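### Sample
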Amino acid sequence: MPFVKSLFLTLRFFLLLTAVVFGLVVAFFWPGLLVPMQLLLGLLVVLTLVDWLLLFGSARTGAGGVFGRRVLGDKLANGSDNDVAIYLENTYRFPVTTETIDEIPPQFQRRDVLFRATVPAGQTTVIHYQLRPVRRGEYQFGALNVFVKSPLGLAQRRFCYGQDQVVPVYPSFLQMRQYELLAISNRLTEIGVKRIRRVGHSMEFEQIRPYVPGDDPRTINWKATARRAGTGTDTLVVNHYQDERAQQVYCLIDKGRVMRMPFEGLSLLDYAINATLVVSNIALLKHDKAGLLTFADRLSTVVPAERRAGHMQKILEVLYKQRTRYLETDYQLLYSNVKAKIRQRSLLILFTNFETLNGLQRQLPYLRGLAKDHLLLVVFFENTELQHYLDQPASSTADVYNQTIAEKFAQEKRQIVRELQRYGIYSLLTPPQQLTVNTINRYLEFKARGLI
C-alpha cells in the first residue's frame, strides 16, 4: 500500500520499545513484572497505531497533512549567495514537528540541508537558507522531503514535493543589480569604488546654472554673470558639465587554458564574466556603449557596442554560454579581429592572465598594436594563494625553498606590470575577489581624465 512507504518509526518509539524489552527480560527473573511489562507493550502498540491514525486521518482537508514548497528564483547567480525559501503549511488540527531534507543539486556538495521546525496547527512556517553556485549551467533539484511527527512522536509521515526542478545558473546578475542600485544612488564608495576627482574639463557642456557653495570657482561664467548683473540680478552663474557620452567600452575575455585556474571554487573565467556583466551595466548607466568579445584559439563571440533597451539581457545570455577552452590563446587572431570589427577608438578591457614575463613578451606586439588604436587596459590576476603562503613563517628548509619559488612568481607579476607601463599600456593586477571593484575604479578614472 502506498501509505506504508510514507510511514517511519521514530527514535522515541525504539527507545521505548528497548525499555519494554529490557523489562520483559528482567521479568524472567522477577515474575511480578511480567504483567506490567505486557501492559506497557500493548500500550506502546496502541499509541503507535493512534499516532499513525493522527498522521493519516486528522487533517483539515481531504488530502491532509503538511504541504511544502521550495521557492527560489527562475535562475541563480554564479558566485553569489542565492536565497532559497521553504514554506511548510500545517493543515492538521495539532502542532507538528518537521524535519525537512532538501535534495539540492550535487554540484553544491553540501550535507547540511536538513532543517527542523515546529509548525503550529493551521499555520505556515518559512525556512530560509542560501546556495552559492560556482559554475554556470543547469542545476537539477530533487525532492523536498518533509518528515512530520505528531505530539506523540512515535511515528512520522513523509511528504515529497518539488521533484525535478531545473534552474539555470547565470553570471552574477545579483552583483550587477547591487552595483546598479549603488550607482544610481551615488553610493558606490560603500563597496570600495573610489570617488575620483576630475582633471580639467574634458566633459561636454550641458547648461548654465546659479552658483551654489561648493562649486569649483573655475567654472564661473563671468560673461553670463555680467549680463545678468545688467538686468538687476547679481547671482553668480557657473557652467555645468556632464560626462562625455556614447563612448565605446568593450570587454575582451580570454577563454584560454590560463583562465581555468580556480580561486575559492570560482574559475578566473567566471570572475571575468561576472566583472564584465557589472562593468557593462555601469558603462550603460554612464551613457556609454557596452560591447563584448570572447576569444581563445579562435574567435568565439562578438557583441557590438550599443546602448539600447534589452542590450544587457543580450550580454547576459551570451556570457551564460561561454566555456573555457583547453588550448593556448591566439592574440594575433584577437588583434586582427579587433582591427576589423572595432573601427571607432574605444576602451578595451582585456581580461586575461600572465604568469611569466616570457608569456607576456610573446604577446606584446599584438597588445602594442591594440594600444595604438584604442585605450587598452590589461587586467590580470594576483595569485592570492601564493601570497597567503608567503605570509606564513618558514619552519623548515623545504618551506624556505618553497617560499623562494613563490616569491619568484610574485616578482614576475610585478615585472609584467612594469613591462606594460614601459610601452604605455595600462594594466591592472588584482586579486580575483577585488576584480569588479578595481575594474570599475579604472573605468571611472579613465572617464575622469578624459582618456575615452
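The first strand starts at residue 7 and ends at 9. This sample (DUF58 domain-containing protein) is used throughout the tutorial notebook.
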